Amino acid sequence: MGFLYFFSFPDFNLYSTPLLVLVLQGLIFSGLLLIRYRKKRNISDVLLGIILLITCYHRTTYTIGFMGWYDTFRNTKINYYLVNLTLFMAPLLYFYVKSVTTSDFKFTKKGYYHFIPGVLYFLFKMVVLAYDSTLPGFSDTQNGYLVVNLQWKYVEPILTILTICQMLLYLAFTFQLYYLYRSNIQHFFSNTYKLELNWIRSFLYIYSFLFIYEIMQTVINLSITELSWKQKWWEQFFSALAIIYIGIKGYFTDTIKLTKLNYGNSSAIFHNSTLQSEIANPKKDNETKIKSPDIVIKKEQLETFIENKKPYLDPDLNLVEFSKKLNMTRAELSEVINEGFALNFNDFINQYRVDAVKQMLTDGKHQQLSLLGIAYECGFNSKATFNRVFKKMTQTSPTEYLKSTSNQTLLK
Questions:
Q1: Nearest to 91 by CA among 177, 154, 156, 209
Q2: Rounded distance, CA 228 to CA 246, Å?
Q3: Residue 197 in this model has a pLDDT that exceeds 80
Q4: Please, which of 180, 187, 320, 336 could form a disulfide with 264 given CB 3.0 to 4.6 Å?
Q5: Does pLDDT of 71 surpass 50?
């Protein structure tokens, strides 16, 4: 009977099997990311690999629990080695997003300060293990004196409050970082679809959902009713599903575009105070602001160049390269566009592209080319960007605009 009792582990059932399968796949993607880091040295790969690794690691208690570990090994000491690493997760999320939205990102020594709380808690767990292991009867019990009378009674409640506050703070900064990036690229690139990194937004939404779900579960468990292991299983299952999605998208999505882009002499072009002030006031009132003679001259120079050279037809046009063609600095060109036209660079260039599309439709080019083909001819590089920009600037979709143009032609 003892022999059969010992081999009752592992129990592959409805609760343990999904967690085990999903977590193992997550570990594979974590390993792939870390291997790719060794080859390409992209800091974002190692950060996401560690995030996945910790997320998988946090599923261990419930995975082995539903497999029958705690029932089979009554005096197991595994709880001493399963350390809550949530204090590491919040700064890791922040630095991962920063690594893929900042062109010159480097992990400095100051970055390690963010992980001090996590290190202190890890050391505390090791002290608890070292002390409890010296007490008589330690081998006959699952949890020793310090675990019961110090860790669970005092430290864990404090840790719960600390991790909630920490995650709220870091998520706020991380969302701010991402949306600042989304705003910034409008000032430097004429086509931003491939740079918008919608994957990062999904990544942040997923971890925010898991965080909120965990808080709700904790509140219900402490103040309403004590939840069973099976009721708490859903959080583990959702987390395991997130591991697979994040692993697949994180590995196959190119998140290092910014490191390949040319920003001229301004390597730290994002997150500087000058740019933030531009973003805070992207459009200035042309009627109330008196433009300097220099701005007026450069504005006329810019308009003449665009009419003659049609640079907007280049889908890869960006502020730095365009400023070189005009023999202006990046700052000068940005000032002319912001103050002279009350537009950011993206809207300024796309305005010409939309006008070019409208002209081609008027000329009947849609009889030889599709709408998307016309969009590509006029400098757009994706259907999504074309539809969004066209509707933004004309208050109608390209298809609706074509129909209205065709109807007007028939009436004539």
A1: 177
A2: 28
A3: yes
A4: 320
A5: yes
Short-list 130, 103, 114, 113, CA closest to 44: 103
What does pTM read for this prediction? 0.83
Q: Tell me the per-residue pLDDT of 159-193, one tens digit each, with 9 for 90 and over.
A: 999 999 999 999 999 999 999 998 888 888 888 88
DSSP per residue over 143-205, as a string?
S-HHIIIIIIIIIHHHHHHHHHHHHHHHHHHHHHHHHHHHHHGGGTBS--GGGS-HHHHHHHH
Q: What whole-number distance in Å separates Cα of residue 240 and Cα of residue 271?
A: 34
Nearest to 344 by CA among 386, 284, 272: 284
Chain-centroid distance of CA 185 in Å reads: 15
Instruction: Identify the DSSP state of 340.
Output: I
Q: Which helix (H) or strand (E) holds 412?
A: none
Q: Which amino acid, 30? A: S
The residues pairing with 318 across neighbouring beta strands, listed in sequence order, are: 189
Distance of alpha carbon 217 from alpha carbon 228, whole angstroms: 11
Neighbours of 65 (CB within 10 A): 19
For the stretch 51-70, pLDDT in tens is 999 999 999 999 999 999 99
Closest listed residue to residue 271, CA positions, set 337, 199, 332, 182: 182
Percent of the chain with pLDDT over 70: 88
Measure CA 311 to chain center: 32
Q: Is 80 exceeded by the pLDDT of residue 258? A: no
**CA–CA separation, 247 and 241 (whole Å):** 10
